[in-house]
Inverse folding.
């Protein structure tokens, strides 16, 4: 076996280890959703409040299986696993880009001045104007 073959296998094994680690992370995240978001609410609330955590649990389970399967395939030097790894990397990049865009848009929104429709004067119950308070310096 030449140096290039060994280097190639090491790189693929490293990518496989990354995918196994991601599978474990999604598995732990799904278990946390189950323990902290689903089980405490089972008998107390309606089924509608359980819907988002259950969807998150299913998504975490699906991604855990995908990452684990791709990690196993990369360990076997499968070409299909390499394509799957590229797909998951692109999916993660797109998700990261949306997270960054959301952060930027919320920062811009926080800096924007309020419009006149968003400003509501406070009123007392008896219809009188609110008292002016002195500013604390």
């Amino acid at each position: 076996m030449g140096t290039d073959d060994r280097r190639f296998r090491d790189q693929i094994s490293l990518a496989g280890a990354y995918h196994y680690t991601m599978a474990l992370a999604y598995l732990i995240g799904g278990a946390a959703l189950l323990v902290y978001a689903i089980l405490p609410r089972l008998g107390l609330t309606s089924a509608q409040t359980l819907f988002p955590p259950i969807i998150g649990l299913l998504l975490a389970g699906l991604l855990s299986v995908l990452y684990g399967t791709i990690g196993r395939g990369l360990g076997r030097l499968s070409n299909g696993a390499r394509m799957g790894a590229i797909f998951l990397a692109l999916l993660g990049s797109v998700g990261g880009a949306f997270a960054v865009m959301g952060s930027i848009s919320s920062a811009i929104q926080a800096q924007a001045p309020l419009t006149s429709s968003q400003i509501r004067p406070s009123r007392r119950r008896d219809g009188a104007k609110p008292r002016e308070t002195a500013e604390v310096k």
